[in-house]
Predict the 3D structure of the following.
Amino acid sequence: MNLKETSAKEFPQFEVGDGSNGAAAGNGFDRYDAVNNRPGRIAMYETTDSGVMICASATAKKSSLSWTHETSLQLLKPVEPTVDPLYLHVDVWSDSIFRVRCSDKKDPADPFAGIPEEGRMLIGKPEKTAVEVIDTADCIQLKTAAMTVSISKETTRITACDSTGREFFAQRKNDFRTADVFDLAVSTCNGEKNAFEAIELENDEVIYGLGERFDSIVRNGRWVDFHNKDAVGTTSRRTYVNIPFYMSTKGYGLFLNSGAATQWDVATSDLGALYFSVADDRMDYFVIAGPAPKDILRRYCTLTGFAKLPPLWSFGLWMSRNSYTSWDVVDDIAAKVREHDIPCDVLHLDTAWFRKDWDCDLKFSEERFPHPREHMQKLKEDGFRVSLWQYNFIPPNEGNTHFEEAVQNGYLARNKEGKPYQLPDSCKGSWVKDVIVDFSNPEARKWYGDKIYDLISMGAGAIKSDFGEGIPEEAVYHSIEGKHFHNTYSLLYNAVIAEATERASGEHIVWARSGTAGSQRYPLHWGGDSQCTFEALAGTLRGALSAGMSGIPFFSHDIGGFLGLPSDELYVRWAQLGLFSSHSRCHGAGDHTHREPWTFSAEACEIFRFYDKLRYSLMPYIYAEAEKCTQTGLPMMRAMYLEYPGDINVQHIDDQYMFGDSLLIAPVLKPLSKTNQRRVYLPRGVWFDYFTRERIESSGMWIQREVDLMTMPIYVKENTTLRYCACDRTLQEGMGEIIREEYWG
């Protein structure tokens, strides 16, 4: 093959990448002048308490744009005979977890040094593990009771095998001069650095995770937008929750311990490679051995933390709209909830409880929401908790004392001139002038937390932490660089609210939109602003399952969709899914686009009531399963692969799920005008149709179910005991007595 090298002058449109080079494209590191330092032969190593520190000779190769006829690609060309060495730290974290770090510095600085533990993704500590370091002719090996990690002396290629000798992890090393993906390297371009890594991907291997993904639970062949942002819908690649953790059907997981901008390429540029890069001068990741996905998730949570159990009342129904505008409206909703016999526990006040809609100052309007303490106490006596909206921006409006305090005390993100950061005039859209609370500042955290504490002490049950994903990297923050703070900001944001709530009430809860690795420590999350379409309903389910595969156990969404007005049918289908999610909330945009069930047809309201009461009656099962999630890291809404990893048929299923250990839920995601049939996959074993009690012995097969508007197929796994309670109004006083038990076997 004859490759012709070119320069950017000949083809200026390719100077900063056109997206054809996968994960590196668009960040400047696929340019013709990027220099990639790759570790080669091990020059020396020394053992440490937990592994080895390796000094590797490095080869420098410059990226150049090359052509063969009409195809453009990267050519890697050696540019210097010698360069500074690269340092690799390979450490055993436990019997089944090892850590890989690579940098051109022996001891690179920790970008999170100024951030407390609650704002870090990685909070786990290494376990005391017996590690045997073996020096062979070809490699250095780190051996534990469960795995052996090998590092090639010639190339520093890292592989790992389990105790049976089965290889479950291997770095990808490129020998060919052209590279659609870059293997392990620290690259320099215009004084900036990026780190790259590539992992071997087998042709039948499936990758899951990387956060809340609305397009599919399977990441293979899909480009990943890994920048937290306002998704404005649930049918695109945009997401509020990017989590740098994935798991593989090969039997391992990988957690990338970096808050810097990250790009992932899973079998798009090269079918045999999973490739990722970080806009940082070091690579730092953990490899987690399974082989079972449940083991991988649990071990991932030993690194990033387990969720605490939200209070019982939070598992009841939340009723909301954007926005209830006065106590009169709230009282009317409370009365109608009871009048229509809709079990409900939470009434949520969205953006209008301040003096002026959206003018977030954390103070109740004296005109429309007077005497909040007394009013919230009265609602609580009738079985309702009150949830309050706020967000991490502050409108710089006249009379907003919240803004004035933040400016005077330096609690805001700053621009380079030291003034409160505001988006530049070139930015279009809403709220561009709002300033940003800098939660990397410990004084700002205390100030904000005290305000949340006061609201909870006044009687509020929970706080909705809206936004949190649109944090500008170019702003100046108190304790961390912006490039490390964009995706991780939500950790501190949600931590401040959850901890203030727990301090005031003893209950650990926040209703959060944005997140990253470790966000499971601050439950719970909801899926943001979905459209009112069946496509968005399906995307919402995929987002929930993908988030669950990424360590988020408690997940909710806006029943009916947020943007627009759902039809009766869509509302019912969304309610059926929502009432079999970990948490259930009715919510929609606009004061006149209601989501209360009695605002739809009598039939829709009746079906809503049926499934709502079914949820409440099953609360002993739901709450017990939720408690298990806090101990195992498993999600309440569980992709079929998590429960049945040995069944190849379930690997791509993302339209049904296990709700806890024993209930299989098959929500109806298409209108009846298109089909009245629902295809459901039943894994091997005995299943019972929840509604008809039909016993089905499955060899691992698809069945076809006829459905009407009332029907959402639910199947119960054999040998399950379901306990029912008499609770049919509120969970304020607990679940009450168990009225019956049913054994399915």
